[in-house]
Amino acid sequence: MNIIFYRYDSICEPDYIEAFKKLGLEVVEDLDGWDGNESSISDKLGNLRNLVLEKWPLFIFSINYFPFISLFCDRMNIIYLAESVDCPVLQIFHESIKSKVNKVFLFDKMQCLSIQKENPGGVFYMPLGAPCERVAELLGDSTSYAYDVSFVGSLYKEKNPFLNLKLSSENKLHFDKLVNKQMEEKRSGLDYLDDNIQADDIDIIKKSTRDFQSSTDLVMNMDKYIVLNEYLAPHIAYIERVDILNSIADCIGNGKLHIFTGSQADELSDGIINHGVAKSFSQMPHVYRNSKINLNITMRAIRTGLPQRIWDVMACRGFLITNNQDEIKDFFIPGVHLETYDDKEELLEKIQYYLEHEDIREKIAQKGYEEVCEKHTVLMRTARMMKQVFFSKET
């Protein structure tokens, strides 16, 4: 029994390929989207059609949702199974999401609720998973601390289209006030902006750029969603991450905060050591294991869910401090499996505390590792997808 796995070089793909194989499936890889392949949609569809006619798969799978695959599967009457690992994902609002062949899994509960009504039998909530087996084989059982506090990820300056908007000084001040109020209100999500952004604000941003993505193929008007998630959320991430990292460096001293990023970092304190990009499979797990404290600052477009970084750190038996996302309580107990913070002052206090209390820190890291290995692996998530698709009465 085989499946077709559409690949485009997502870092999550290898873990799901291995999971499907462990579940007894033969994985036929469609590499048409791999490594920047610029094939036309017509060519991609032709390649998929040839693979389907040759293999007659049980279903076609992809990391994240692709409307053209859904449309193809609808015509061929083949199940399309997609696991979203990113948020926001504008593609899930394409008209094709309504197809009866779709089985789409979204890790952010609020994102899932926003689209599930369009296809109740085809859109499901499912958290991301921990790659425990892969990193255990890579890391073994030893720990050799090389870093006091580490952050792996983008600073979002290069992913911040808000900086390129042609705004008047008055409008820029207006949006700065809205953004600052959101950051004061809560360390996660976009609730304040969601409640307070007006139609005039949306029009201002639309008129300030030629790159605003509008489409007639979506199930609803997405202008507000795009403003919140594509413009304001990355802008907050940029401001927030620079501020938090500089504050940590000031608090714990020079040379103790290490970042691993490909972002421009000229606004960071000279006391922060920038190691550049850490390779996802060969280097990143070592950083997570060998850091006394790993930091997660969730991108605010992820409204309630847990980003992959949380699962990865815990799979590596790393100690994690993260902003307090709403869904954390569904899986973990703060102070037992990981640690959380609600504001910057609390974060700084906890960093100082856990740097001074190694025994407590290591106990939490071990408990968190055991929890994800026992209940939350990628293999378990993949098996749950299969159960939902083929054995649930709801489908």
Description:
- The mean pLDDT is 95.
- This protein is 43% helix and 14% strand.
- It is α/β, with parallel strands linked by helices.
- The protein has helices spanning 13-22, 41-55, 67-76, 109-116, 132-139, 169-185, 191-196, 199-207, 223-252, 284-289, 308-315, 344-356, 358-375, 378-390, and strands spanning 2-6, 26-30, 59-63, 79-83, 102-106, 123-125, 147-152, 257-260, 272-274, 291-296, 320-323, 339-341.
- The strands form 2 sheets. A 6-stranded parallel sheet has the order 2-1-3-4-5-6, with helices on both faces. The protein has a 6-stranded parallel sheet with strand order 9-8-7-10-11-12, sandwiched between helices.
- It has 2 domains: 2-129 and 378-390, Rossmann fold (3-Layer(aba) Sandwich); 132-160 and 234-375, 3-Layer(aba) Sandwich (Rossmann fold), CATH 3.40.50.2000.
- Helix 4 links the parallel strand 5 and strand 6 (123-125).
List the helices and strands and how they pair.
Elements (H helix, E strand, L loop, with lengths): L1 E5 L6 H10 L3 E5 L10 H15 L3 E5 L3 H10 L2 E5 L18 E5 L2 H8 L6 E3 L6 H8 L7 E6 L16 H17 L5 H6 L2 H9 L15 H30 L4 E4 L11 E3 L9 H6 L1 E6 L11 H8 L4 E4 L15 E3 L2 H13 L1 H18 L2 H13 L5
Helix pairs in contact: 1-14, 9-12
